[in-house]
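Table 4 source record.
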Amino acid sequence: MPHLTALLTKRTIRLKGGEGLHAGRVKLTVKGRGPVEFAMFKAGYDVADFAKDVNKFGAKNDVKALRHALKNTTIIGGLAGGGSGTIVFPKPGAYTPISLGERGLTTGKTLVVQGPKGSTKAPRTDGSIIGKNGPSWGGASQLPAKGRFEFKNKADQPHFVAMQQVQPGTTTDQVLTYLQSGEEAPPPWGLPAGLETGTLSPGRSMTVDYDLPPGQYVVMCFFPDPDMGGMPHALMGMLRMINLT
């Protein structure tokens, strides 16, 4: 399987292993502080248009700009810095590495993926985490503490996985109450371990390698919902408890 490495710096995203890359599944490793994901834009819409829409939404909660970005962009997944897994380039074409973090939107040189399409067979996984309409989660309620899961988006909106360890016995109601309160202090139920994936557009999937302490975790998605004024999905109740053993 081809191996693509993405290094996120303060100003750009540098790719290694993209020369001669064909469509299909590739192993992805992300380095640096922050997430890197890959976006494919429709004809007549490019990364500058995407940046403009993202900045409008971020500055003014411009839901029209958010809808415009989602209409013209397919995001095929990615990982936070230090993460590894696999993503699928669905067809030959141009894919742009992007990272949306505290410093705003960072982009890298567009990667041109060639044809014909190669194998898209996923590696063995220990279970799945599934984004669904609602918004809600499906998939495994228990996973090993070290392994690999498949993240699938079966919803009609983009989703990503934010997983945080919590004190045993914590409920989704407690997490939701904290999130909706707007409290800035760390939650009393929160523990430091966790992971985050990149975003998947509807119908996409990826695999995620992980190694976390055993315990109880809450799975969340904070992608803004254009049908709810840009409210993050987690504040709408997209929360699920799972156990790593």
